[in-house]
Amino acid sequence: MKAALNGIKVLEFSVAMAGPFCGMLLADFGAEVIKVERPGFGDESRAWPPFFDGKLSHYFAAANRNKKSVCIDLKSEAGIVILRRMAQQADVIIDNFRLGALERIGLDYEALRKDNPRLIYCRITGYGASGPLAGERANDLAIQAYSGGMSLTGEADRGPVRMGISVADIGAGMFATIGILTALVARSETGTGQLVDASLLEGQVAMLANHFTSFFSTGAAPVRRGSSGPGMVPYQAFKASDDWMVVASFTERMWRGVARAVGKPEWGDDPRYADAKVRLANRDELVARLAEIFRTRPVAVWEARLKAEGVPVTRVNSVDRVACDPQVLARDLIATLRHPAYGEVRMPGPAVKLSHTPAAIRMPPPMLGEHTHEVLSGLGIEEATMNELEQDGIIAMYSAMARA
User: Fold this and answer.
1) 294, 315, 336 — which closes off a domain?
2) Which residue, 44, 294, 308, 383, shows the most beta carbons closer than 10 Å to its own?
């Protein structure tokens, strides 16, 4: 079956998570993604522990399947000449290097589109490509803090907490992917490419959607409430006798179901709890009373009682539980692939299913420089020339690095 993005060639200049995650999403749906890495070092995340088989970084593996790796020195004139040739054949470029890094060597959008007007150039930055912080270094933690997300994460009586997932990095990668796919659709009509401008900050502000509208509608900045929702009670985590669970009551019908499930049907009509507004006003009292009751039974009992009343409830799962969860496995959300050098590698699989052109994992994360020879041969560069470039340190090929 032909892949959805079959025939789309992507040149990826990116490290860590945001840019690589974007490239991986495109690769999963069939794009040929060529990752450009530094000879000898590669993407810095290759060195981040822990490792599969003691060598393959878990972090690198998480965002670089289905790609080809070429090693070319971006600081050499000969290397830049090669990359400009590659850019002429590319449909998409992904750049999450520091703002201006590729511009200084003539590999920015304005320079490359002159030779390739169909080029879609996706630039992913930390704070955005303009404004007073455009040139500032950024990372996931910094943007979670700067965007306002950390001010909402954590318990009310404690300090702000970083969200456990790299939401700023991965969010930027997903928004960048949406931009690229939109630009590809537009190109099919216009015949020309365009610049896709994404950033970690803009992704986080967008994802704080209802929190900003709450602020704009009330004038009050949202605050940390732990696991509870700002406008619904009960809507949070509770400790059962054996584990944590979340109870999500967001309609009056569900609230009355909670009251019946905990053996307090009279609470449904109690004037202190009878509607959402008064429950919010009496949040602390109600939550304390519910917490005392929930501690008396295990999660399985509360799941049975609450689900029978139509109230959403679920155990707070740890990652090891999720990895073997029947629903997760039924949806093929955990993928297992064989790496020729490192053996079995497991990771989350593609999250979006298409009925006619599904995503697939065709290749494991590449070895550093594994495809340099293949890609440069495709440009018409002869073997002798490649050997000279390798001797001069301008390119690196996997076989040579493996010998080293």
Assistant:
1) 315
2) 294
* pLDDT at residue 403 in the model: 45
Kindly report, residue by residue over 296-326, the tens digit of the pLDDT.
999 999 999 999 999 999 999 988 888 888 9
**90 lies in the same domain as 200:** yes
pLDDT at 384 over 70: yes
Give dist(CA 173, CA 283) in Å, integer. 38
40 lies in the same domain as 154: yes
What integer is the mean pLDDT of 174-203? 96
Residues forming beta bridges with residue 13, ordered by sequence position: 95
Sign of torsion, CA 83 86 88 93?
A: negative
Whichever domain contains 248, its CATH number is 3.30.1540.10
Together in a domain, 129 and 33: yes
Q: How many CA atoms lie within 13 A of 380 on its CB side?
A: 3
Measured distance CA(394)–CA(388) in Å, rounded: 9
Name the DSSP class of 108: S
Residue 394 included in any domain? yes
pTM score: 0.88
- On whether the CB atoms of residues 347 and 374 are closer than 8 A, the answer is no
- Tell me how many domains the chain contains: 2
Asked if residue 219 belongs to a domain, the reply is no
- φ, ψ of residue 366 to 5 degrees: the values are -75, 150
Contact 176/26 with Cβ under 8 angstroms?
no
* Residues belonging to the active site: 169
- Residue 183 and residue 395: Cα distance in Å, rounded? 32
- Domain finish residue from 315, 343, 362: 315
Q: Are 11 and 36 contacting, i.e. CB atoms less than 8 angstroms apart?
A: yes
**Measured distance CA(228)–CA(233) in Å, rounded:** 8
Report the SS3 class of residue 52: strand
How far apart CA 341 and CA 367 sit, in angstroms, is 9
Using CA atoms, how far apart are residues 199 and 171, in angstroms rounded to an integer?
9
**CA quadruple 105, 8, 179, 116: dihedral sign:** positive
